[in-house]
Amino acid sequence: MGRTAPKSVSRVYADVNGKLGPSWYEYDNLQVQWGAQDHYEIVRKVGRGKYSEVFEGVNISNEEKCIIKVLKPVKKKKIKREIKILQNLAGGPNVIALLDVVRDPSSKIPSLITEYIHNVDFKVLYPRFTDFDVRFYMLELLKALDYCHSKGIMHRDVKPHNVMIDHERRKLRLIDWGLAEFYHPKTEYNVRVASRYFKGPELLVDFQEYDYSLDMWSYGCMFASMIFRKEPFFHGHDNYDQLVKIAKVLGTDELYRYIEKYDIALDSQYDEILGNYPKKAWSRFITSENQRYISNEAIDFLDKLLRYDHQERLTAREAQTHPYFVALLASVHLSMVLGYDNSRYDNVAVYWGQNSYGATHSDVANFQKPLAFYCEDDAIDVFPLAFLNVFFGPGNVPSINLANTCNPTDNATFAGTNLPNCASVGTDIKTCQAKGKIVTLSIGGATGSVGFTSDSQAQTFADTIWNVFLGGSSSTRPFGDAVLDG
């Protein structure tokens, strides 16, 4: 498939690895800190793949369940890459946690020890999903994808088999980072990645300068199979037939526009098997069995994911703001608010964060105490944190002032911003939420006020609030991984 295609660069996070530097993305010389293999015992086999066998295990030192991924003989470089990527992504939303790396003393076969997720096979679980469930888990998966992309990493093997879901706890984890790779713009990558049914068109036409958008095609294939109850959605018999199956849905006109744009020369084998097909309306896939998952916003969302041209697909960040998830976010917010029983007359909300006594008195003993102290009071139901008082500070990032507890003057701020790092408050927030309290952020207060000059500015501000304080992801989260309730 010879070609002289123009270089293609990701629309987002293109220079992340360049900014983070070699210590972030180089793995050839990674010094692995090996743990003790005899700390773990295998309980039962739960799966196998091309590069590994997977077992449920137990850490005998604390009796906690874990997953033991025993790697088959592969190049050390590939093993180091997977370890490095898992280490780099540690703590990211919905990314499987690497707990340990061990090696058999005699055979030297390495194993990755990861967190245990009580997963139910997707072929059993997905048919049980409600429309709300599909929206919920697809949003959770986007959080993992946007996080890894924001860290300069492509997963390259997104599929149901690599998405573990504990439905009882509504917990999702993206696993198996063995094919993941660091993204560098204008780099040619191996197209022999991803599983056939989830391979993007770029892989099938041998376009090597692909990027994070490959994951979004695979994600779109998952989504299509979930809402149309057709597993897999594109069912090719081999890689050539896979592109034919895609063309029979998306049409050949767009395919030819795509290969012309990037000056791609199709393999001659396609001359015999690739005919001319019109684009098929998504409504053709709607049946009485899948009707409950279908809505205008679901179809629009799918249409913006399954695009031949990788540059046209929604990014993981953009996808999270699609109208498909609006109803979900409203429902989640409502469920939080319902912790405050509106039918009662004795609910109590107490502002925390200001210290009016301390403003006029010097005896520290009577100053405002840590948030966790007040959460011991069973009479208090809701804690609005006061205040977010600067809306567009340095770096276009807001700022908060929690008086003597945490403020931009007395506490360290995130680089290029006036936003203080309030990690200790984040710990208290999680403590309070564990006790059933609602913790929110009060916007305004003191002299704080704001107006928006356009809808786009308002949308940007809303996205910032979501990423910095609520369920999104950002490198400038003053409360760390604590997620406020509103």
TrEMBL record:
EC supergroup of this enzyme: transferase
GO cellular component terms listed in the entry, alphabetical order: cytosol; nucleus; protein kinase CK2 complex
Source organism superkingdom: Eukaryota
Residue span(s) of domain Protein kinase: 40-325
InterPro entries: CK2_alpha, GH, Glyco_hydro18_cat, Kinase-like_dom_sf, Prot_kinase_dom, Protein_kinase_ATP_BS, Ser/Thr_kinase_AS
Subcellular compartments: Nucleus
GH18 domain: residues covered: 346-486
Entry GO MF terms: ATP binding; protein serine kinase activity; protein serine/threonine kinase activity
Protein name in UniProt: Casein kinase II subunit alpha
Predominant cellular place of this UniProt entry's protein: nucleus
Binding site for ATP: K69
Role according to the record: Catalytic subunit of a constitutively active serine/threonine-protein kinase complex that phosphorylates a large number of substrates containing acidic residues C-terminal to the phosphorylated serine or threonine.
Keywords: ATP-binding, Kinase, Nucleotide-binding, Nucleus, Serine/threonine-protein kinase, Transferase
SMART domains: S_TKc
Alphabetical GO biological process terms: carbohydrate metabolic process; DNA damage response; regulation of cell cycle; regulation of transcription by RNA polymerase I; regulation of transcription by RNA polymerase III
Family as reported in the entry's similarity comment: Belongs to the protein kinase superfamily. Ser/Thr protein kinase family. CK2 subfamily.
SUPFAM superfamilies from the UniProt entry: (Trans)glycosidases, Protein kinase-like (PK-like)
Catalytic activity field: L-threonyl-[protein] + ATP = O-phospho-L-threonyl-[protein] + ADP + H(+); L-seryl-[protein] + ATP = O-phospho-L-seryl-[protein] + ADP + H(+)
Biological classification of the source: Eukaryota, Fungi, Dikarya, Basidiomycota, Agaricomycotina
Pfam families: Pkinase
Kinase keyword on record: yes
The keyword Nucleotide-binding belongs to this UniProt entry's keyword annotation: yes
Subunit details: Heterotetramer.
EC number: 2.7.11.1
PANTHER family linked to this entry: CASEIN KINASE II SUBUNIT ALPHA
